[in-house]
């Protein structure tokens, strides 16, 4: 095991967003690539954003995806939240309870690198409003910076409410080297005296993240690039403590197709939604790996092991990565194609049942036939009921597509449908023999062949002139359903 220690540090405020899974994945791939350690820490010091059950949801989604946690918060064999590792607790609210942050904030205050602030929220809002009206970037005006420590302590003893703020030096450049974006510099005059301890006594993210990354010996901070503007505050805190900062790797923003940030707030993009749509973990992971990273070849299909072998930050892009759902479908389709027919049948069953196409007792034989029929066209399991719905619906419910409707009105169609019905009448049921030979028989009897034969029959049975192997479809639908449907066609077109 190497010294590399990376962490995924989500704030569980609901479900796991796809951008969060991409961050977790890039951390994980780097950990595996370097034989390092993948840690999961929960950052829940913002109690106003606490959501019941969010932690379990998050861990389950990660578990589903195949991103494994070596240390920190994880699920045990019974899917219960547990912790493992020698730097715990790994949930920040528990670290608050354990008093871990106290001595660090005291040290900063004693060394005049942080100060007590007694300003009320109303005052802070007023200052901000005024600054905004004057066209300035809103930030704390520093009123409490110069209160002597003894006086501040007395005010606290007298019961005054307070926060603790970082005392940034004036007009100083703070730089750090981002592995992907290069050197980034901020001036402290453009930065805020960040709150480190809130009125409720909880540390803010900015304070806790630095203390915890240091105490947990994190070597590389890999996170979304929305955190870049926070990084100088963190870098300054490391300096104030006299600690070495980790290496920073800020990943390109995930964009939607309009090149805007693919955001949680739009309510889409939750990992659970992709599970519900029937994507495979392998497909989603493969796709996410390519969201901001590219391999050193034209290849695009990778297992987790292959990704771990090839992955490094050198080939992570600087600019935003567009989330292209068609690409996801294409990638996922590869994994669907790789399944055995029986596996695919098992996977599509719940989607078929849920859409009301079949019930739980539907035969395995037919389900396998259905899987085999559509395996080359299914990109995600929820495609199965969409692709095959016309086989299951009653004839007055199915959608006849435009091309089919045209073909069904043609002269020859009646002749062909009659020929089919006649043969069907002579058969007890549709078996393989019937399904394999019927089209040849009709061709012989009517003299119609090729497109002129196949399009009308296929249109009449399935509602579309195109589609998969027709003999499979006949077997799936069976005699009664096809008979009804052909009679309906005769009467209605
Ligand atoms: N808790 C932060 C989040 O929710 C983590 C940021 C970081 O990785 O430092 O994204």
UniProtKB/TrEMBL annotation:
GO BP term (any one): glutamyl-tRNA aminoacylation
UniProt-listed Enzyme Commission number(s): 6.1.1.17
Compartments (UniProt record): Cytoplasm
Gene Ontology molecular function terms on file: ATP binding; glutamate-tRNA ligase activity; tRNA binding; zinc ion binding
Classification via InterPro entries: aa-tRNA-synth_I_cd-bd, aa-tRNA-synth_I_codon-bd_sub2, aa-tRNA-synth_I_CS, aa_tRNA-synth_I_cd-bd_sf, Glu-tRNA-ligase_bac/mito, Glu/Gln-tRNA-synth, Glu/Gln-tRNA-synth_Ib_cat-dom, GluQ/Sye
Residue intervals of the Aminoacyl-tRNA synthetase class I anticodon-binding domain: 343-488
Residues noted as binding ATP in the record, renumbered to the chain: 264
Catalytic activity: tRNA(Glu) + L-glutamate + ATP = L-glutamyl-tRNA(Glu) + AMP + diphosphate
Keywords, sorted A to Z: Aminoacyl-tRNA synthetase, ATP-binding, Cytoplasm, Ligase, Nucleotide-binding, Protein biosynthesis
Broadest EC class assigned to this enzyme: ligase
GO CC field: cytoplasm
Motif ('HIGH' region): 10-20
Boundaries of every Glutamyl/glutaminyl-tRNA synthetase class Ib catalytic domain copy: 4-330
GTP-binding recorded as keyword: no
Cross-referenced HAMAP family: Glu_tRNA_synth_type1 (MF_00022)
Cross-referenced PANTHER family: GLUTAMATE--TRNA LIGASE, GLUTAMATE--TRNA LIGASE, MITOCHONDRIAL-RELATED
Subunit comment: Monomer.
Functional summary from the UniProt entry: Catalyzes the attachment of glutamate to tRNA(Glu) in a two-step reaction: glutamate is first activated by ATP to form Glu-AMP and then transferred to the acceptor end of tRNA(Glu).
Protein family per UniProt: Belongs to the class-I aminoacyl-tRNA synthetase family. Glutamate--tRNA ligase type 1 subfamily.
NCBIfam families, sorted: gltX_bact
Annotated protein name in UniProt: Glutamate--tRNA ligase
Organism whose genome encodes this protein: Anaerococcus octavius
Protein's gene: gltX
């Amino acid at each position: 095991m190497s010294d590399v220690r990376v962490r995924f540090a989500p704030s569980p405020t609901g479900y796991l967003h796809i951008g969060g899974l991409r961050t977790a994945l890039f951390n994980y791939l780097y950990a595996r690539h370097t034989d390092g350690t993948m840690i999961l820490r929960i950052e829940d010091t913002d109690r106003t954003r606490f959501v019941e059950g969010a932690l379990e949801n998050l861990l389950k989604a990660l578990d589903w995806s195949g991103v494994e946690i070596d240390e920190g918060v994880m699920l045990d064999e019974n899917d219960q939240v547990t912790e493992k590792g020698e730097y715990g607790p790994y949930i920040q609210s528990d670290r608050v309870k354990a008093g871990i942050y106290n001595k660090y904030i005291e040290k900063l205050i004693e060394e005049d690198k942080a100060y007590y602030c007694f300003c009320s929220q109303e005052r802070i809002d007023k200052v901000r409003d005024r600054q905004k009206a004057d066209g300035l970037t809103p930030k704390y005006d520093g009123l409490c910076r110069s209160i002597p420590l003894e006086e501040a302590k007395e005010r606290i003893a007298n019961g005054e409410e307070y926060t603790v703020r970082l005392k940034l030096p004036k007009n100083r450049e703070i730089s750090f080297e981002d592995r992907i974006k290069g050197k980034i510099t901020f001036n402290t005059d453009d930065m805020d005296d960040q709150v480190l301890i809130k009125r409720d006594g909880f540390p803010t993210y900015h304070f806790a993240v630095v203390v915890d990354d240091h105490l947990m010996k994190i070597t590389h901070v890999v996170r979304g690039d929305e955190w870049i503007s926070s990084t100088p505050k963190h870098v300054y805190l490391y300096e104030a403590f006299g600690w070495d900062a980790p290496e920073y790797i800020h990943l390109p923003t995930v964009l939607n197709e309009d090149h805007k940030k693919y955001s949680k707030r739009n309510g889409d993009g939750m990992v659970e939604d992709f599970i519900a749509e029937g994507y495979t973990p392998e497909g989603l992971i493969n796709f996410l790996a390519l969201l901001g990273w590219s391999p050193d070849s034209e290849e695009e299909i990778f297992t987790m092991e292959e990704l771990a072998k090839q992955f490094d930050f050198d080939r992570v892009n600087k600019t935003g990565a567009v989330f292209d759902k068609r690409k996801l479908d294409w990638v996922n389709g590869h994994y669907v194609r790789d399944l055995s027919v029986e596996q695919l049948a098992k996977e599509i069953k719940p989607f078929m049942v849920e859409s009301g196409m079949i019930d739980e007792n539907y035969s395995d034989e037919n389900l396998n036939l259905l899987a085999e029929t559509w395996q080359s066209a299914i990109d995600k399991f929820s495609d199965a009921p969409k692709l095959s719905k016309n086989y299951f619906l009653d004839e007055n419910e199915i959608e006849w597509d435009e091309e089919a409707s045209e073909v069904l009105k043609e002269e020859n169609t009646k002749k062909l449908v009659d020929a089919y019905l006649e043969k069907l009448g002579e058969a007890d049921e549709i078996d393989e023999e019937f399904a394999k030979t019927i089209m040849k028989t009709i061709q012989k009897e009517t003299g119609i062949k090729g497109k002129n034969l196949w399009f009308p029959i296929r249109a009449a049975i399935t509602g579309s002139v195109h589609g998969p192997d027709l003999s499979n479809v006949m077997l799936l639908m069976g005699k009664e359903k096809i008979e009804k449907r052909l009679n309906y066609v005769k009467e209605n077109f």
